[in-house]
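Teaching note: in complex prediction, the entire set of molecules is handled at once rather than each chain in isolation. The prompt given to students was simply: 'Predict the structure of this complex.' The entities are:
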Amino acid sequence: MKYSKQREIILETLQKNAMHPTADMVYSILHVQYPNISLATVYRNLNQLTQTGVIRKLDGLDGSARFDHNTHKHHHFICAKCHRVYDVPYEVVPELATQAAAQTGLAVESCDIIFRGCCPDCLVKN
Amino acid sequence: MKYSKQREIILETLQKNAMHPTADMVYSILHVQYPNISLATVYRNLNQLTQTGVIRKLDGLDGSARFDHNTHKHHHFICAKCHRVYDVPYEVVPELATQAAAQTGLAVESCDIIFRGCCPDCLVKN
DNA sequence: ATCAAAATCAATAATGATTATCGTTATTAT
DNA sequence: ATAATAACGATAATCATTATTGATTTTGAT
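The expected output is the structure of the full assembly:
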């Protein structure tokens, strides 16, 4: 993989904005400082970074995919009202994959957990 | 909600085909016997059935949403090779939502778990 | 059984997210 | 410095899904 300035600033954006932005959000943020960057470039590089394991792609949270610079094992919580995504530390959840594998006989390799509810911020506001 | 023949056969299709079909698959199956049914009708009714709790919509498994006639609490396993979806009984997984709520302080209301790996069928074939 | 109101339908246009294409530009190994 | 190639920007294309519209069914009251 060849170096590119664009990939670098896309990764930086993800690291600075830990709020699990969508591709479009990353584009919007970058577009301010770099008006020439293309949305296609953002998608292209987010996918590449995902494939090489530098970042993580989160599907099924919302309408569109979100991207996470934190590649350590952890899970997610999404607020039904504001749609903000929160991290749920891995330790909170037991070794589900291996447990489920043992009990079902399926060759489970991983598992994704999405918790849903109302976030503290939205609870206060209502 | 008013009765409609179309909604009835869409629900029947889901009950007969427990393989978690996509809207498009439901349409393809029905189109053989009912060439006049519209894809939009399938989407509309699958959404209605989901909203009234008759069926369940599964997001984040694959590219497109899948539908499940089984509304009992359970989780899912998707094979990385053939993309078939298997049910994982609820009992296999402990009371995650309440546990996670207690440990994170978030108002967790529910959680979806997707297990990933290779299904028995594909294991044999390789 | 009849008729109007409400819901649903089929067909299709529109939308939103994402990917593919293509001619140009930047990076890297020689 | 050059040639090979990977990446870029712009935009067209694709895919899944939703909205629109005018016609048809279903329902409930007469």
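Point out the following to students. The mean pLDDT of chain A is 96. The domain at 5-68 of chain A is CATH 1.10.10.10 (Arc Repressor Mutant, subunit A).
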